[in-house]
Request: fold
Amino acid sequence: MIQEQILIRITGQDRPGLTASVMSILARYNAQILDIGQADIHSTLSLGILIRIDEDHSGRVMKELLFKATELGVNIGFAPITDDDYEAWVGQQGKNRFILTLIGRSLSAAQIEAATRIIADQGLNIDSILRLTGRVSIKHADKNTRACIEFSLRGTPADKAKLQSDLMHLSSSMDFDFSFQSDDMFRRSRRLICFDMDSTLIQTECIDELAERAGVGDKVKAITESAMRGEIDFKESFTQRVALLKGLDVSVMQEIADNLPITEGVDRLMKVLKRCGYKIAILSGGFSFFGEHLQRRFGIDYVYANNLEVDENGKLTGRFLGDVVDGHRKAELLKLIAQVEKVNLAQTIAVGDGANDLPMLGEAGLGIAFHAKPRVVANAKQSINTIGLDGVLYFLGFKDSYMDV
Reply:
């Protein structure tokens, strides 16, 4: 019996039971489903079905489908697919697949055109487009002010480094965020996420807060900013700053901890990560006192930070205990926790803003620069600058409908 391939395209107003009605007809003629895909935008359906069927039955199948389409009030079309064309399509299955995620407070046609132009110039094809964020109200524009679109791509980039660089420059000039990742098993099974603390989980630098109380705010802030830009060695800067805190009463630390400005999106992010079984760590060049405060608040699994020395009178001595948690140590700790938790490094995520975060961002399977310094953004593969920290969830493929249950 000779068989042939037919591509069926159905468009129109969606309704419950439409796909079942079509499949009922195909089932009667024992059609084999070679491919199927469906999209629904504002209740408008686009359904494609590629079937293989006995040549003797194809005319009757198309006739019945035409009648059913008229009954359902949708449009239907048919296209023959040759054996050679089908085999060429099968051969494309071995091509690399990638995920491009775009995020912003809103996304315009100009932003999407520019990003997809870069993708096209690299020879990549878009297989599907998925909106991850909820629908935006036009009557209440101040609610749900974020937009995220995920593109599934197929092919091999002509120049991956240039693609990454072009997207980075574009996101900066057009005010949106992006992530370009391989669509592999590790992307779908992340298990460990490590955060910097100061200016990432919280919107302040705790050492600057302490310095203000000690009356040396300007001196410490200048050293902090220079260190975060990577202009001076982190250990050296840390030693200098801690020395300036000598004599400050330790009780000040609790007052600061009780009033830490939590970054937008942290509560939502932590809730979803814990619900999904992620292990969460704080790896901070700041102080463990504040990291442990956040640990208790959010149920964080690991905290590694620096400990300040306190004298018998409850005053800071201007010294610290143990080794400094600098950039190199953060990367080591990420690998150590992954080993303890039996997690492949490709399944890890790191998020930070400063130059001392670059080693762990580079070590993690997914490194994300968050509202970061220019040097960090320039060296990171993913960045978030337009929305809160829960934007990380979109890079992991979560939809709003999953997160808000």
